[in-house]
Each structure stands twice: as C-alpha cells, then as structure tokens.
Amino acid sequence: MIPYSVNIKLAARTLTGTLNLQNKTAVDWGWQGLIAQGCHSSILIIDPKTSQTIQVLERHKANVVKVKWSRENYHHSLSSPYSLRLASADSAGKIIVWDVVSGTAHCEIQEHSKPIQDMDWLWTQDASRDLLLAIHPPNYIVLWNGDTGTKLWKKSYAENILSFSFDPFDPSNLALLTSEGIVFISDFSHSKPPGSGGKKVYIASPHASPAHTKPVPAALPAPTGAKKALNKVKVLITNEKPTAEAVTLNADCLQLSYLPSKRNHMLLLYPREILILDLELSQTVGVVAIERSGVPFIQVIPCAQRDALFCLHENGCITLRVCRSTTAPDESVAASDPEQSVQELVYDLRSQCDAIRVTKTVRPYRMVICPVNENNAALTVSDGRVMLWELKAHVSKPTVNPNSGLSPLYAPVAFCGSPLGQNQKKIQDLSLNTMIGQSLVSGADPPPPSLQQEVQLKFLLTGLLSGLPLPPFALRMCPPLTTKNINHYQPLLAVGTSNGSVLVYNLTSGLLHKDLSVHSCEVKGIEWVSLTSFLSFATSTPNNAGLVRNELQHVDLPTGRCFAFRGEQGNDEPAIEMMKVSHLKQYLVVVFRDKPLELWDVRTGTLLREMAKNFPTVTALEWSPSHNLKSLKKKQMLAREAMARYTTLSDNEQSSVESSVISLLQDAESKSEGGGQAISAREHFVFTDTDGQVYHITVEGNTVKDGARIPPDGSMGSIACIAWKGDTLVLGDVDGNLNFWDLKARLSRGIPTHRGWVKKIRFAPGKGNQKLLVMYTDGAEVWDTKEVNMVSSLRIGRNVNYRILDIDWCTSDKVVLASEDGCIRVLEMAMKSASYRMDEQDLTDPVWCPYLLLPRAALTLKAFLLLQPWSGTFTMDITQVDYTEKHEIKGLIQEQLNSMSNDMKSVLLDPELNLLQRCLLVSRLFGDESDLQFWTVAAHYLQSFAQARHLSVPVPEGQSPAEGTQATPQGHLDIYHDTLCESFYFQRFQLERVHLQEVKRSSYEHTKKCADQLLLLGQTDRAVQLLLETSADNPSYYCDSLKACLVTTITSSGPSQSTIKLVATNMIANGKLAEGVQLLCLIDKAADACRYLQTYGEWNRAAWLAKVRLNPAESSDVLKRWAEHLCSPQVNQKSKAILVLLSLGCFHKVGEMLQSMRYFDRAALFIEACLKYGVMEANDSTNKLIGAAFVDYARLLRTLGLRESAAFWASRAGGAGEQLLEELFQGEGAVPEETEGPENTE
Fold this sequence. Notes:
By secondary structure, the protein is α+β, with helices and mostly antiparallel strands. 25% of the residues lie in helices and 29% in strands. The protein starts with 12 loop residues before the first strand and ends in a 16-residue tail after the last helix. The model is unreliable at 1-7, 206-233, 243-247, 328-341, 672-676, 955-970 and 1229-1242 (pLDDT under 50). One of its GO terms (biological process) is cilium assembly.
C-alpha cells in the first residue's frame, strides 16, 4: 500500500456543472495567465496550463453575466504590486470587484437591477489602475472606481447600448454598438463624461448602386462566387438614418471590435461574414465571408501581435485566419498599376481545430485567447466543459507547387526579439509573433531567407476540464476517517447521476477520481460497504402496472468491477425505495414500495430473509450503532489463550481441565467459523410503519428476531426518516416535526420546525459528535442534539437561490450539498457559501502564477529571474542565493520556480540568453503588459541603433538610423506599434492603405478623402487624377478643378511659395486647419504644417504627418515635442512618451525619465543594456545617471532581501554606491529591514 499523506482538513469548495444561458458571455482570460468563468452565480478561476480549477468565488445571488480581469498595464512595485483583481457582474445589476487570492470582495457596486450588458477596465493605467466602465441597461454608461466602488460619472444615450469597444491606440476613442447602429465617442476621459452624444453611424446596404461608381477596368477578371455577391452589396456606413429601401444590417450584428493590430480599423461580425472597416474612410476594406454550406460565426477575436483573427463557429470549431501579405507577386505590374496589387484585405484560413458534437443541451458558448502570447485558445461549452487548444507551428518543406492557392507562411528565426545565438536554446511557439512573420508591404524588401523558415499551423488540444452532468444527484460520502484507516484514507464522494453513471470525486483536490458507468437509468441511492467499494441502486420509469426494473450493483473502486448484487432479480417488480447498510457493513436491508423488505448478507452476497406478505409497510428505517462485536472478539481471545494453554498440558493434567472451558472454546470457534474476520456479530435495526409504530429487529448470523414495539407518538405525523447515534434517536415526519429520543434517560422531546417534509436526517461522523444535518424541500439545517437547538440554517429565497437536492457530511465539521443549479458544494457547518484562500489549497499540480505570492515575494522572484550576475552562473534554486526571508516564503518562491516547464528552465539557465531577451521573456512569464511593451520597443531600437553605430554611420541622438543601415534581425517594428515604427515602413504602409481606400471608394466623399490623403503623402499625380473625376453637376466641381490645376502648376519659385504660405496661414487662423495643412504640404513646408497641427492640439495627426513627410531631423523635433506634451500633467501618458523617445534613440533621456518615475528596476536594467550595446558610454555626462540608477536598484533589491544582488549593483555604481556597500557589509548578520532608511521604503 502506498503511504498517503492524509490531509484531514478538507477545503470548502464547489464542484460545478453545466452553465446557465446567462453565463454565455461570462468568461475572460487575463494578462495574469488565468481564466475566469461564470457558472450560475459562482465564478471559477481556472489555470489553463495545468487545466485545474484553483478557486471558486461565491457571493453573487444572481447568474453571472460578465467577468473581466484587470489589466496589468502599469509598472509593478511594492506600492502597486502584482495582484489578482477580477470584476464580475450579474443579471441583477450588481458588480463585484474581487481579490481573487483571498476570495474576498474589494467592493460591490449596484446602480440598477437589470443585467449588466458589458464592462471593461480602462487600459491606460498611468493615471489610475482602478477604473471600470460598465453599461447599465438600457442606455447608461457609468465609470466606476473599481477599488472604492464610487461612481465617477454617468451618461445616457438615445438608443439601447449592447456593447462597447475601446480604441487600443487612443484612450479617448470609444465605440458603442447600439440597437440602431454605432456611436463613436472621441472625447472619452476619466475626469468627465463625454460632452456630446457622439457621432452616430448607421450601417446599411443599399440595393441600387450609388451614383458615384467607378467603371471596372476590363483587364480585371470577373469576380466569382461569394466575392461577386459582396461586390453587389456595397456596405456603406452613413451618417443619415437609412431610408426604407435600404436594408439595415445592424439587426444581426453580433459584435464590434477595434483591430488592435492596426490603427483606425474595426471589425463587425455577422453570422455569415466579418466586415473590416477603415474608419478614416468609413468604408469596408475587407470581407471574410462563409460560403452557403459553411458553419456560421458566433464570435471573433482579433489579435494584436499579427493581423490575424480567431473565429469561433457554431459547431465549436475555432479557425485562425491570417491577413494575406499585399506584396504583388510581380513587382513590375504593381508599379505600372497600383490597383492591380491590392484589391481588398484578404484573411486566409490557416488552421482550424476539431468541432464538437452539438446537441440541444451541448453548444459552444464563448472562446477566449491568451492576451500575452495569443497562441492559446479556450472554448467554453454549455455542459460546463472548457477545452484548451494550443496553436503549434510545424516547419514544413517548401511547397512544390507554389500557385496552389495559399502563399506559404514564414516564421522569423529569432528569439525574444534578438537573433538566435549559435547553440542557443529557444522555446518553440512562444507567442503568435514568433510563429508568424510580419506581413510584408509592397515596396519593402522581404527579409533574407536565412532569417525565416516556412511553417504550417496546427491546433492541439492540450487540456480539458469537465463539469458535473445535469442534476438530480444522489450523494454519499465514503466511511469516515478513523485512527485505524488513517494511513490509506482518501476522502471520496460518490455522486450518482441521472444518466446512470457514478462519479467519484476526491475532495482533497476536488478532482474526479473515477467515472463509472454503472446503471442504465437514474441512480437513486448509494451506500458504501468499505473504503473502496459501494452499492448503488437505480430504478427505471414505471410501466402501466407500476412495476419497474430495479438495478442494485456492487462496485469495487480499485478494479472498477461491478456485478449485480441481487443476481437475476429485479425485472418487473415494485421500485426499491431505499437501502441501508448496517454499521459493521455486515447486513443490508432493501426496502420496496409495495413489497416486503429483503435482508441480505453483504459479505457473502446471499439473501438472508425475505419478509412475509403480512409484514408492515416501512416508511423509515435505520440501523442501530450498538452491536456485540467487542464482546465476541474478547470471548474469542480468551478461547484462543485457553486453547493454547490446553495443548501445552501433559496428558494426565488434561482431564482435569474444566469441561466448561472446552464448551466455551467450541462455542467461540463455531461462532467465529474459521477464525479471523468472519465473526457474525449481532446488529439491530428499527423501522416505523404507516401508523408511526416503531419496530425493533435483531439480526445475528442468519437468524432474525422480532423485538419490542413502541406505540406511536400522537404529536408526530407519518414518520419520514430516522437517524440513530449513540444514545440518541431522532425521528422526522412529513409535517416538519423532529422528535429527539434520549435512550439512556428514556426521554423524548418533540420540536416543530415548521419547514414541511423532513426529507433526510444524518448524524455527523466522529466520536461524541452529536450534530445532525436535516434536509427539507426548501433547504437544510444543522442541529445539535445534545443541547437540542439549531446551529445553522439554509433556506431558498432567504440566503440562497437554489434548491437542495441531497445532503451528507463529508467530515465531522463539513457538509456537502447537491443543489439544483448543478453544483455540489462542500461547506462549513455554518453553511455560508464562501470562497477559500487560494494559498491554503492543496493542488494536485503546482501552478505557475507569481500573482499568488505575497507582493514582496513576487517582486523578489522577478528580480531573481531577471539577473543573477553576482554568481557567474545561473541557478533555479533560491536557497543557493543570500536571501534573508522566512522559510515559508522561500518555500513558496521555490515552488513557483519548480512549477515552470523544463523548456523554460533550460532557456533561463542558458548562458547564451542575452539581457534583452531575458527581460522580454520574464515580462511574458509574469504577464506584465507594460514591461512587455517597453522591452519590445527598447530591444528593437537598442539593436538597430547599435548596429548603425557598429557600421560606423554617425547617427545623431534623436534620429532613426537611415534606411540603408537597417540590418536588424527584424527589419522593422510591426505596424501594431503604429507611430513607433520606422518612418520608411510606416510610409509604405500608409501608401498601401490609401491605394486600398481608393479601390474601395464608393461616393464623392470617399474620393475627396482619398485625394486629401494622397496630397499629404506627396502623391500629387494620383491626387490630380482623383480631383478631375468630380462630375460636373457636383457643387465642388469648380473648386476641385482649380485645385487640380494648382497642384500640377506648383513650382518652387519664391513669390508663389510665399503667397501660398500666406493663404495657408490665413486659412488655419480662420478654422480651416486641414485645408491649410494641405497647402503647406504642397510647397514642402510639412514641418510648419506639423507645428500648426500641434498648436491646435492635433498631436496624433502631426506625428503621422512627420512620419510620412519629414526628414529624420525635422521629424525627430516634432516627435520630441509630442513626447513632452504626453508627459504634461493634464495628459499624463508618460509610458507612451517613453516609447516615443525610445523610437528616436534618446536613450539617455529615457533613462532619466525612468529614474524620475521611480521605475528603479526598469531604469537600471535599461541602462545596463545600453552600456552593453554601446549606445551609451560611461563618461562624465552619463556617470551621474548610471550611478543613481544602479544605487536605487541596489536599495530596492536590499528591501526585497536579495543582498548579494544589491551588493553587485552598488559596486557597479561607483562613488554613489560606496555608502550602501558599507551599510550592507557592516550589517553582516543583521536583518536588512533594520538598516532600511526612510528614503527607500518605496
């Protein structure tokens, strides 16, 4: 037998089952790496890596309709630590913000009592991390402080609001999906409600094609199939309400989301198509359509790291579609006709997972994807299953037939943003952007073949969580823990289900231990006959004669063997009402509805007695806990001793042994029948008949004796159940009366509970424990039979909203309840459903989640993983470093380190892993959004500037290296960084976007916007062509024609320049900003144009223009001004400003800013990386910054208890660190807390 370490303390927990329809949208995957899911009124917290439920939050009274993890988009320190914060909203309009580790609520919010339609945390967290926006039906949006529960503002709109989406590039933009269309809000701010009612937009598809159409060039092949249909239905976005003849498409719009992969794009989801809109043009630029036989969409999640969509279909299939690169196969064609190269955005199907079997009760609900890596998806199914799919990339052979439809996908050969070392270890499929290369843009050179490899994507099912089946349930806990079975005891709970299977759960871990298919119909009752075997019975639905098929099975758990206990009997007989096993597990009584009871011997499986026809009808029955086993064993011992003595006597003495001893021996031996275990002890049971008379029957071996009868108690109705323990017997009747009998004192006491039918009563296990659990139709109560008073009560409607189906004790102080909402709850005796502390839980598999640690320990773990330069080698054992901290905390940190995958450990221990890769990897491990963004941009630009310097091209600080020197492993940042990308790439991307808009334009408005964009981009010839398209009956015909003439005749002669400049400045002064800026761009005064845009607060537009039109020096000036503006207190987006400065290569300034913002760890590591890459040199101008940063980091490390590490950084800091070094070494043996000065409590 394997020695188990027995955990006697069982955690209170909830085993959950099928979902409610209202839980459909309640699922979220957070940056913290965990999935939260609503199940009825509870919330499950699931760890997707080990696929186990690690917490269940219970406080809502109504069904949970939304859950949202808070974002981690801020710098984490001791004052703003890593913590698990979750907001959940229910159908009664209550929002609760949870501290998930302790299972307690931070605050509760209630505005109205209707279900919350949508909610989300604000993603810009520089000003505050606690802001939560919620839609309170029908038409309010309210901004709450999620920490205190205070309302900041409330705003109502004209239409009913269904959902909203934040613009991931601009925190002041918000789009609301309403019942009639879309409302765009462009002045969203946390300080005050939006001023206007927003810009309303309606979606329509007119039947007749609009007046302004473009003739289709004859050269193009005629579009086929779905394309043709969609070209006919040009989807327009109009500001007017659609007229009667236009079909409003909004009715079945399922979802609206901004694309996080490129700015100003949005997707709308319909059951049979996804539309991609370009918001600058308000026009559809891409359609993903399903052909007629395809399976409709339910949901789509756009990715940020690459332009890709995860789509969920109605059959539970998840598909991944990746945007096709727009490079034309033949560049020469593209150059002659730009329209040939790009027709619309096309999303190619790259991978799909298996579908599930959809039935009436089983259908897919929602999918969530991991926000950190975007290569894992989880699917929730209505039956309570959660399926975890992982995307894998396989390196494939180059395709033989290149024109077989799809172009090949390429993956970059790099790791964490840096080229791979010679023998460097890497983690396969770390995240989506390491699996799929960047989308190419026409005009940009593709990366050399050495830096990429062709891959194919596959979905792999890596985890599955399943819930309980549909209720009703029959519960029975295995026999209680005793001193005898303590070495191999497992707290198993058997759950009989409606489909005939018996599920056995281990309550220590809360995991399913065995799922046994035992019966063919609903299981009605279970009785354990040992720690590893039980009897269960099920009855089929009655036939016309009222007879059923009874199944009584004996199941052995270790082997899973079941056999029919009553043999062939059981067809066409009255239904079994109950079965009761005696205390010593020797005998079994089976009670039928209209047939006398049967008495069986459990050990031999034989029928001892079938009672006579005139036997009274049994209404309730219970075995007595008293028996004569002890006296029998004593007799047997005496007999054995006597026997032993008897055989050692000499012959002449034997005759003198008393005959009484011999008779005693024979008597004992006959009783023990072959010695050992098979002693048949005498046991009793009592039962009541329909008149309430109590009968007492004794069973010994195979003899059954009728004992005393006690007449009925007049105050009781028909007895429904009996419980007996020690000297207390309790009877419960159908009217809700409990009668307590004290058998020693011969007293009885009746208590009316006024709760109706007493369904079940059970005594708690444990010697001298006289607690009693009572079940009624409307709830349950715990009574103390010693004092005869009620301990706790649970009633439907009062403190819970579900009916209780079955009850049992699982330990001497915990009860287990099965309820109608499909859950089984293990509760304290007080029966308050409570969440538990996660850190007190026994998990089967260790979970990697630094958020579970104390704030200080989490930061220590991070520092430990980031840098261990003090020892020369890396270690994954915290005990090997000088770390002064309590043992428990050290142990918890070590557990976290141990729970990492072996791949991750070997990569972190690899000496080839450079500092930038390490910082990126750790920020991914911690799910730290702000760190990840900072290090992605920093790693890219540090390497690109270092390379430029290495090629000895002098690059003045504040300018991007010229295009020619761009030889970094990743030629450029991907477009989801928007204005942080290199100018040459940004410019090409914008040009391509205008070409696409041009192809797609369908009205004069669109054409005008395209012409304006082309002028700003400097594409004058194309702009003139568009201006000349204006038809003669258009009011702007004259104006446009003149503009076309102006554009073609502009020369750089002095007088015309100054005139145009004067006109432009006058226009700007009179409120025509866009027109003035255009004129300035025409005469190559884009730098002035940017200055004007900035003066008038158009900061984003100015940055855009600087990127596409200015030379590096001028552009850098504009962007630096923007960075200063972002740092100003009223804007407060310092983290964005830092990224802008990184892209300009102002590394010294970035170091100073990080230092002044007290981001000590980030500042020190960044400066260290700058020194390593040689983009910053230690000289008199920089030494002050380097010293300060290193000393502050050393102080922080000392606060965390990492002394060796602190000493290392202090020694690097030069003069500034001397004092700290002295303190560190002078306090040898002293606890660092004592030497903590007030200046470094931060």
